[in-house]
Amino acid sequence: MRFRRTIYTLVTLISVVQFAQVNAQTKKQTKKTTAAKTVKTVKPAKSAKKTAARKAEARPSAQKATARRLGEVAAKNPVDTTKRGGQNAANNPNNPDKNGGSLSEEIVVTTNYKPVLADAVKIRRNPNLEEATPYKAPLTYTPLDKRLEANSAIKQLDAMKMPPPRDSIPYNNYVKGGLGNIKTTYAEGYFNNGADEGLQYGGWVKHFAQSGSDFKKQNQGKDEVGVFGKNIGETSTLSGQIDYHYQSNYFYGYNANTTPAPVFDPAHEHFNKIGAQGEIASNYRDTDRAFVYALKANGYLFNNAFHAKENNLVLTGFINQTVKQFYAGLGATLDLATQKDSLYSYNNSIFRLNPYLKFQGTNYKIDAGINIADEFGFTSKFYVLPAAKLELQVIPNYVRLFVEAKGDINRSSLLNFYMANPFLGENLQIKNSVDLLDLAAGLKGTLAPGLGFKAFIFRNQVKDMPLLVSNFDFGKSYNRFAVIYDNGTSKVSGFTGELNYRASDDFNLFGQVEFKDYQMASEKRAWNLPKFKLTAGTVIHITDKVNVTGSLLFRGNTYDRLNNGAVVNINSFADLSGGVEYKATGRLSVFVNVNNLLNQNYQTWLYYPDYGFNIFGGAGFKF
Q1: How far from the centroid of its chain's Cα atoms is residue 47's Cα?
Q2: Over the stretch 519-558, which tens digit does the pLDDT of each residue have?
């Protein structure tokens, strides 16, 4: 009996313990699935408890997510956990309305309340607790103690140091010579005392001769020799030179279309000129108040193979006082000349006086003056002519506008006539022409670095313009030219353009173009004067050893007048020439020059064709 009681007691205790464990698990499961919700205590079956426990262990992540959502709901809507008889309050004996408001209530705590915050209110960024002060460099500067100057005005350039020569050893003397087809002989020589800043002296010689085969005695030659000297003192500079020129040719021209061709022995012509000049001038001083002076004298003795002679002496001087941007000065010229031939002997002299005032500012330059000219000798005339010029800067440092008005007496010179046309005859007519009014307006300056230009239009009024015309008489073997004058006032209008492009020290290109329109006073045409003329050239240093040069001359057609009044047209022509020089060593160089590359049989003067294609070469030597 006692044994049965003992066993019964043990079974009862084991059942109570198991019931307590199952009840605890049921409460834990109820907390996870129904947080903040009033539940009814029910004793589930033992198998249901085990199944719920296995499901809870199998889905921990789902339970956590469900707990988070329930926590958020609980935080927003708190629920009373007082047990009020489950969901049916009417059948609940603990309902105060049922039990008469008794204070005895059964409180069932289903779980510990743990609030869960939503992500929106979480702070997931930690503050930066490091204190970092940015580095600031100390501010230091040094002001420039320099006065602001308006230096855009045109002023004389300061002296610059000479660049070092390309050759390591400079040489003072140079000779050059060569030979070519059409019996070409060529020679040049230059001599100098060397590098001396205070004293320079030296001399030169030149020779060039050619002989063509198209006409009998189509020979020409030129020779020249001279010496010079220059002494630079502290306050003034003295310079001078003496030279001698000799030129010879034959009157070989005739009309090759004449049948039969005229038979004559071309006469020989030659010219001699001995010239000298000297000058003394004050040195430049960089001061606001400068007194500048200069005196120059030059003259020559000229004669030809016949009876023509001319002696000329020109004395020129000027004084100028500068006060800041104001210039006042006076220039004077005494031009003394005598001209002789078999039929006349003239004293043909001119005296000129040129007072002027100049104003120069930042953007302008004004020259206001007059030219007083007195012609005396075999004729006597007096003129007061303008001598004024205005320059205005329209684009700073690039383009300047200029307007000019001037006039002067042009003395007829035998030397100038014969050098222009060596086939002139004897007893040339002497008559001075006068530029009554020469007007010009244009632009000059720089378009780009290294690209300079000058372009202007002009209109000149010339009284007694000289003209060179043919004066042939083949029956008397006379095939020469004469000088005539357009009696009255001729008008010459036109355009002149100049361009110089220097890309570097190794490339230079330059050219000039002229357009002219002549309105003659008494003559029908401007005889032997072209309306269009183009000259151009280039210098290219391909390497330090190879140099290339080139030149182009294009002249429009001209007209000449025969003795019978017939007008002859002289066709236009182009003359292209070039040369190459190679420096074999520092002392020795070789060269080749080619003239009339197009081999055109053109005529500068009627019935006097120039040479065709010709080439000559040689060598040069420094010592």
Answers
A1: 107
A2: 999 999 999 999 999 999 999 999 999 999 999 999 999 9
Strands 608-609, 603-605: pairing is: antiparallel
CA angle, corner 507, sides to 503 and 508, nearest 5?
85
Nearest to residue 113, comparing CAs of 142, 72, 164, 61?
Answer: 72
Report whether 460 contacts 492 (CB < 8 A).
yes
Q: Are 320 and 326 in contact (CB under 8 A)?
A: no
Q: 76-99, pLDDT tens digit by residue?
A: 444 444 444 444 444 444 444 444
Based on its alpha-carbon atoms, the radius of gyration of the chain, rounded to whole angstroms, reads 57
Residue type, 170: P
Side chain identity at residue 65, one-letter code: A
* Phi and psi, residue 432, nearest 5°: -75, 140
Containing H/E element for 49?
A: helix 46-58
Spell 228-261 as b/e; 16+ CB within 10 A means b.
Answer: bbbeeeeeebebbbebbbebbbbbbbbeeeeeee
CB 437 within 8 A of CB 408: no
Q: Nearest to residue 357, comparing CAs of 332, 383, 382, 389?
A: 389
Residue 614 CB: number of other CB atoms within 10 A?
20
Is-contact 459 493, C-beta < 8 A? yes
More confident residue, 45 or 130: 130
The lowest-confidence range among 98-102, 296-300, 573-577 is 98-102
CB-based contact 371:387 (threshold 8 Å): yes
Residue 573: predicted pLDDT = 96
Residues 6+ apart with CB under 8 A from 495: 455, 456, 457, 458, 514, 515
Show the CA angle centred on residue 460, arms to residues 454 and 463, nearest 5°: 150
Q: Are 277 and 295 in contact (CB under 8 A)?
A: no
Strand-pairing partners, residue 212, are: 218
Which whole-number Å values give the CA distances from 600 to 181, 550, 604, in the listed order?
16, 17, 12
Q: Which residues contact 77 (CB under 8 A, 6 or more apart)?
A: 36
Q: pLDDT (tens digit, 9 = 90+) per residue, 299-350? A: 999 999 999 999 999 999 999 998 888 889 999 999 999 999 999 999 999 9
